[in-house]
Amino acid sequence: xxxxxxxxxxxxxxxxxxxxxxxxxxxxxxxxxxxxxxxxxxxxxxxxxxxxxxxxxxxxxxxxxxxxxxxxxxxxxxxxxxxxxxxxxxxxxxxxxxxxxxxxxxxxxxxxxxxxxxxxxxxxxxxxxxxxxxxxxxxxxxxxxxxxxxxxxxxxxxxxxxxxxxxxxxxxxxxxxxxxxxxxxxxxxxxxxxxxxxxxxxxxxxxxxxxxxxxxxxxxxxxxxxxxxxxxxxxxxxxxxxxxxxxx
Length: 248
Known about the structure:
It is built from seven helices and seven strands. The chain has helices at 16-27, 39-51, 66-80, 103-131, 152-175, 200-213, 218-228; strands at residues 7-11, 31-36, 55-60, 85-88, 134-139, 179-186, 238-241. This is SDR family oxidoreductase.
């Protein structure tokens, strides 16, 4: 299988989609390099993977810091000799109506959801260009495909990631660097994302919706594995995934 022995970096790896993806890929023989801010959860995930016979290392990573992303790439090279895949998955969703003027939260979303992706690219693209291969996978959102009241800034960051990834795909093809891309647009997935919402009305409505529809993050992990598992000459670059019953 194409997943086996690939060195896969994951940001936002300590819970939710990142944790589920790390667990699945490790079971398929990938070598995991895990980044997130919470060391206790990273340790627990690393230990669970190695206990089951997998390979994983971790480093505390704040994706808003360029140097943290670069250190994660260096960790991958030191421990496993290369980087094959980067899954830029860290994200925040403190949604609220624009009229609430929660500008601090707006800036946090821009810093993590968009600049975090750019920082990851800055760290890994030199490696991918030099080896003329690589795979960039990002977590966008269905809010990166259509507009939702209460989610203007979150959606703006996810639309930006969509455009960024499409241009990366085209430029890679033009430049002959053989960098594959995949952008994932999840709907209601059971993660910790809702815990960042501070606006009470928005939190109440979003929690009720997720309680009705949400599916597990392992569903997204399956999509990530599918994308990686394709032949190197094949790029499957966009996936929308959500509950069958949710009219997103």
